[in-house]
Structures are given as structure tokens and as C-alpha cells.
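Reviewers of the previous submission asked for a worked example of the structure-prediction workflow described in the proposal, so we include one complete record here. The input consisted solely of the amino acid sequence. No template or homolog information was supplied to the procedure at any stage.
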Amino acid sequence: MVTGSMKHLVQVEPAREAAAEGGAPSAGPTYRCAAGGNAASPPAVPGLECCWDIFRLSVEKCPDNKMLGRREIVHGKAGSYTWLTYKQVYDTVLDVGSAIRSCGVGKGGRCGIYGANSPEWVISMQACNAHGIYCVPLYDTLGAGAVEFVLCHAEVQIAFVEEKKIGEMLKTFPNATKYLKTLVSFGKVDPGHKEKVEQNGLSIYSWEEFLQLGGKEKFELPPKEKDDICTIMYTSGTTGDPKGVLISNKSIVTIVSAVDEFLNNSNEQLNMDDVYISYLPLAHIFDRVIEEVFIRHGASIGFWRGDVKLLVEDIGELKPTVFCAVPRVLDRIYGGLQDKITAGGFLKKTLFNVAYKYKQGNMLKGNKHEEAAAMFDRLVFTKVKRGLGGRVRLILSGAAPLSRHVEEYLRVVTCSHVLQGYGLTETCAGSFVSLPNNMSMLGTVGPPVPYVEVRLESVPEMGYDALSSETPRGEICIRGDTLFSGYYKREDLTKEVLVDGWFHTGDIGEWQSDGSMKIIDRKKNIFKLSQGEYVAVENLENIFGQTPAVDSIWVYGNSFESSLVAVVNPNTQALERWAESNGVTGEFATICEDPRAREFILGELTKMGKEKKLKGFELIRAVHLDPAPFDMERDLITPTYKKKRPQLLKHYQTIIDGMYNSMK
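From that input alone, the workflow returned the following C-alpha cells.
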């Protein structure tokens, strides 16, 4: 690859040769994105020093704008969205902040938030921001064991809890009560719960009671610095205990400015008329950052009702302009659209396919999506747009890789920009994002966002060379003000990943000729087979995951075996179509147990592996079909849908042993 062709990047430091044996590996050049003036940090904004200022400045600028909305439930039915303005939220935040302070929690204290996204969630977070209190969010999907670990590890003194989660919180007693002294319900308090809480020496308040507590005494807001910690965000942890990622005001202010700069450069600026649907967990950095961006612009955030089956209905009512998703949600949208087209009859299917091919062809030639097929947009694709409320102009995918075919399909049919991003909790979410109207970036995460520096570091044991003149590959390393401040109480782990200012992500990337990044592997998910061959399992799962008949796949091998096996969640429609064509009858779960179905899926995986030129030892030799998707209920995936490999092995151990025994 000719470095000069990387048009979306600017080189700021040269490459580094490998040190003497046993020393640091070689590293490629350091780059920033070319857009936005190639600055290392955002321009100073008067009065903008911390997360609290993001909200405060918007209250001053547009106090009467709609800020937080939820659907009103009347006689058991969901009605339209009702809204709190920025000024109303601000006044409530001051009351909540005063109430927290009256409970003895001040600057540098710890406040937990446990529950699904809601106006109360954001109000509690802003109260923490106002008083310099560390906000410690907990995924609403976490069980009592993980909640207890976080509460104790972070030394949480007060916790805001969704009403239906209070019972789960009580399971952490008495261990969590070492530090925890106050619980606040987002709704009411059950008398039985109140009794148990008070038996353990704690106080518990309903939301209304707590607001009244805050109205009795007012507290001055303490000064807050850029380098102050504003949140301890616990990573969901694919192995071992969750790690507490310390995120400063500076990190969030910088990433919010970076997202703004990116949108401005893409001519997709946010404004106060934009609307966002809040359904991805606020306990995850992806949604937290996006909501901070919306708040900065005085825009509106509407909350879903917490039920994935009702999400489409909530979207239809809210009519958001920006939609953020994880790949699993977009995969469902893709699957649903495919089913509708298949069921629509010959004429509709033919018209759709003609429209798709025509628009796709024009977009691949470089036409903007809104200009590629205006007539077909009106006749065909506007129906897809209406399914997302009719106003979505920007779809952002993050938290895991989005399949290339799904990304391309949605770019064509949704009449919106579909952009894929990449980042970690430690980098304050988005470090890379693909560019609008740029089909050459399909399958990549685009160039770095503004104010972030990136380089690749060679991984010799995996054959990745960051100095390759043709295809530089290596571990993605990131530097800049968006980085976290360390792992709470784990200086040892901090030193492992933060070296000379560079955060080592553990992900393997490959620079593309235009300066976009493609994630190809995971450094840690590598093991040896019995004959000494190294297997990069995440890379294989990404490849096999492109098989249309496969929804999800977990590949397994170890150093005592010479081949790989896999557990597959088959695609329901694909497997049922195959069964119908091959005379296999029964429910989906019954079909999955049929040896012929396993043979079919194994054949499809082998075909994909050979098409992608995998080596013989990288092909799957046996499969088990599980009709139930990998889920959080069985502790097989994290809340961001990353596979928990030790737990997968424990759950499927008997099946894995059976597959290996059947091959001997």
C-alpha cells in the first residue's frame, strides 16, 4: 500500500522499528483524521469544562426545548409522548442533587444507577454531574451477583433503582450494605421492600419522597475540573470480574466535540429539532455519549417502554431523526425486511429487486444515497423509511461488527446514512466511524474521528506486520484526550494496556488504501491446536458469520485437539426453507436435532471457508445446532452481545466433548 494514498489520514509521527529481542515490537506511523483541521484537541469553548457544563449551557440557551419524553400510559394503553423541558429537568436535577447531598454524599462520592433508560435515569446522572459525584451505572440486565460486585468494588453509597429492580438489589444484602446507605426508587416503594431495607439499617425513598427531601435544603455546586472523574463505567467482562473504567470530564467533553466535528464535516450537523430514541443501555458508553451529544444541542430524547417487542411501535410514535443500534438489532431489521419481501408476491419482489439493483449500482458509482434513485425511493424504499418512523436520516451501528451484506443492504433501502463505528469503553466509545455516501468503506469502521491519534503495532506471533508496504496490519493503539484514566483499584491491569500514553485495544486492524480501518481479528482470542497451528478464533467467527444460514456462531478448539468444532444458532427462515425442500418436518427445534440439518449447516460453513481461502485446519469439522440464540439469561453473552467464552465452554462442555468423541 502506498501511504500517500490514505487520503482521509494525516501522518503526525513516523513508524518505529522493533526494539532488540524481547523489546517492543515495531509500530506503524501515527495518524489523525485529515478532516477538521488535523487538530489534536478541540477548540476551547468558554464555560465548557465538564459534563455538567454540557447540560447547563443548553438549559441557558434553550430552556423551553423538549428534553426528555416518555409515552403516557392511559387505561393500560400507551399514548403519545409527554415531555419535560430543559428548564424543568434542570430544576428537578437541582432537587435530586440537594437530596443526595443531604444523605451525606458529596464530591468524589459514589452513586449507583440500576435500571432501564428513563427520564429519572438521566436526571440522576445529571445530579451526579452537578455535584462532582462519580456516577456508577449498572446494566439493567445484570443479576444480583454482578450488581453486588460493582456496588462493593466501587464503594457505592447511594443507589437509584428502577422500581421493579429493587427486589434484585435486596439480594445483594447484607454484603453491599458495607458502603450502601440509601436507596431511591424511580417509582414507588413496596412496604415489604421498605421493611427489609430498614432492617439492614438503610433508608429507602420513593422518587417523590426524595424530591421533597431535596427541596428542604439547597447546596452550593462544587467547582469541577476537566480531569475530575465523572463516571466509573464497569465493562461487562467477557472473562472474570468486570473492570471499573474511570472516565473523566475531559474524555466525554472531547468525544462529544469529536462527534460534533465529524457530523459537521459530513454536512449532517445536529440541531435542536433532532430527536433520538433512547433504548440502548445508558450503562454503556455508546448510548451515554450519543445522549450527551443530543443534550449539547438542546435536542430531544424520547425513551422506549423497555420491551423489544414494542420498540417499533415506540419508534413510530416518536419519529426519531437519528437511530443508534447494535448489529443484533440491525440484523433483525434486515431479516424482517427480507421476510416481508419474500411474502409480498412475485410482482412486489421483482419491483423491489429491480429498484435495489439500480440504486445499489448508482451508489457504488459514487452517487449520494438521496440522488441514486429518487423515483424508487418514493415508490419502494419510502415504506422502509416509514418503518423507522419516517424521519431517520442517520443510523449508527456500534459495540460489535456489523455484517457487510447487512450494512450494504440498509444503506440502500433505508434512505438514510448507515455508518459503522468502533471504540471501547476505555476510549470513550467512538474512535473510528465510516463516512456517509462512501460505499468503498463497507465492511470497515472508517477513519479515526477528530482529536484521536492511531497507530498499528506489529504482532509477530500472529504474523501481523504494521510496517508492511502492502497491507499494514497489527494491534490498534489509540492516544488522545478521549482515553480513560485507568481501571479503578487495578493499577496492574492499567499498566498492561496503557503504555507510554498509548492504549492497546487488543483488536487487530488493517489499514485500507483510503485510510479507513478494518477490524480483522482479536489479539487475545488466539489458541494453538494440537499440531501447533495458531487459530485466531474471532477472525474465523467473523468469516463463518457471513454464511446466510447462520445467525451466530461460537468456534471452539484447544491444544489437545487437532480440529475445530462449533455451536451454531441457525437462521430460522433459511433452515426451515431447507427443511421444506428436503422433506424434513417438525418444529424448528426438532429440525435442529436432525443429523441432516447439521450436515447442511456444516456444508454451508465449509463452502464459506473455502470461498474465503481458509486453511484446512481453520475449517469446522463438527457442529451442534442450538435453536435458542446465545443470551444473557444463560450468561453466554454480555449486555453488548459479546461472547463470554469461558461461560460458553462451561454451558456446552458435554456437547463439545460429544462432538470430539464422535470424530475419533
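The two ends are 45 Å apart (CA to CA). We consider this example representative of the routine output the project will generate in years two and three.
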